[in-house]
Specification:
382 residues; alpha/beta; Aspartate Aminotransferase, domain 2; Aspartate Aminotransferase, domain 1; 2 domains; seven-stranded mixed sheet; 17 strands; globular
Length: 382
């Protein structure tokens, strides 16, 4: 192939372009009707009561921990195998991040390891858990909710990789990522390589009216216009607490609406690509496992290989730009300096030594994927 095949990329079609142009020609570029329309359609899509659009998922995570009342020095558990934002949001609020290890086959935060960590400390030592639907594979949150209820913890589902993914719970019911049935809050990302590309952007979902109102305040400077008083007109507003300017624009929301409408098609195509990889690599290369009754939305297709740096460089010589997801957060210089009391995160570290993400996006052609598979296998077999 003479052209570059990236690990991920956005798919922008004419209807997306038309929607943005229409908004650019409208009266509102921000704080207008498209934001609310996007929120309502997204909430309906995932099955949540409320959705709050934000300028990026990191901002969404930040105000989520604040809305749940996280205070300085309070402790939250998350996975080391994630982008740093899943942990950073806790630090923004002055909290402490603790890591529990992953399952070596799903690469998701291990329920057993999380339980071990919680039960190794006194009651009340931890305040919350942030499981991550890594690579698009949903965390089965039913077990985590039971654990959280037992220890009075909240849950934020980092669903940035997984819009459209789901697991089947013990009642046989489909639980879409971010629907709020087993987590207090869900957070999604609209970065260009994600399923729904808005340039930048994010969405918070919840079933709690109280959390919804708190998140809406925090998103916009802590300001509300709901409390009108005598002798004041429509200009009146109140700043009730210190909030942030984390709003999404109407331009981005217009793009998000058209992208959202195509997400099921995108997820289906991503699973076709994943199944082709699995058939080609069967018995030769380990890949992320798929628990029964789960739909992986496949933001990524991750495999484990020996001599990872060698295959990474080899693929680049053939214009295949695979990527590594992720350097374990606890090994990054900032977090390494904090110290984790000898935490056993061997599964995460072993995974990182071998992981590589192969091209995964809906517009990846069959010929391009065949080329990727050929080159991967030629290196493995050679």
């Amino acid at each position: 192939m003479n052209h570059i095949i990236p690990y991920g990329r956005q798919s922008i079609e004419q209807d997306d372009i038309d929607a943005v142009i229409e908004t650019l020609q409208s009266d509102f570029l921000t704080q207008g009707p498209k934001v609310e329309e996007f929120e309502k359609k997204f909430a309906e899509y995932v099955g949540a009561n409320y959705a709050i659009a934000v300028n990026n998922a990191t901002a969404g995570l930040h105000i989520s921990v604040l809305a749940l009342g996280l205070k300085p020095k309070e402790r939250v558990i998350t996975t080391p195998i994630t982008f740093a934002a899943s942990a950073n949001c806790v630090k923004y609020a002055g909290g402490e991040v603790w890591f529990a290890d992953i399952d070596p086959d799903t690469y998701l935060l291990s329920l057993d390891k999380t339980r071990e960590l919680i039960e190794s400390k006194p009651k009340g030592f931890f305040k919350g858990i942030i499981p991550v639907d890594f690579a698009g594979l949903p965390v089965n949150l039913e077990g985590f909710k039971g654990l959280a209820k037992e220890h009075d913890l909240w849950i934020i589902e980092d669903a940035c990789h997984a819009p459209g993914g789901y697991f089947i719970d013990s009642k046989g019911e489909k639980q879409l990522c971010g629907n709020g049935n087993y987590a207090n809050i869900g957070v999604f990302s609209f970065h260009p390589v994600k399923h729904i590309a808005c340039g930048e952007g994010g969405m918070i979902t919840t079933n709690s009216e109280k959390l919804y109102k708190k998140l809406m305040l925090l998103r916009t400077h802590g300001i509300t216009k709901e409390n009108m008083i005598e002798n004041h007109g429509s200009w009146y507003y109140e700043m009730q607490e210190l909030g942030y300017n984390y709003r999404l624009t109407d331009i981005q929301s217009a793009l998000g609406i058209t992208q959202l409408a195509k997400n099921d098609i995108s997820v289906n195509r991503r699973n076709e690509i994943a199944n082709t990889y699995k058939e080609a690599f069967n018995g030769k290369i380990k890949h992320q496992s798929l628990p029964e009754g789960t739909l992986n939305a496949h933001h990524l297709f991750v495999v484990e290989v020996e001599k990872r740096k060698g295959i990474y460089d080899f693929l680049r010589t053939h214009n295949i730009f695979a990527q590594i997801h992720y350097i374990p957060v606890h090994t990054l210089p900032y977090y390494k300096e904090i110290g984790y009391n000898g935490a056993d995160l061997r599964n995460s570290e072993r995974y990182y030594s071998k992981c590589i993400s192969l091209p995964m996006y809906p517009s990846l052609t069959d010929d391009e994927q065949a080329f990727v598979i050929e080159k991967v296998l030629s290196y493995i077999n050679g």
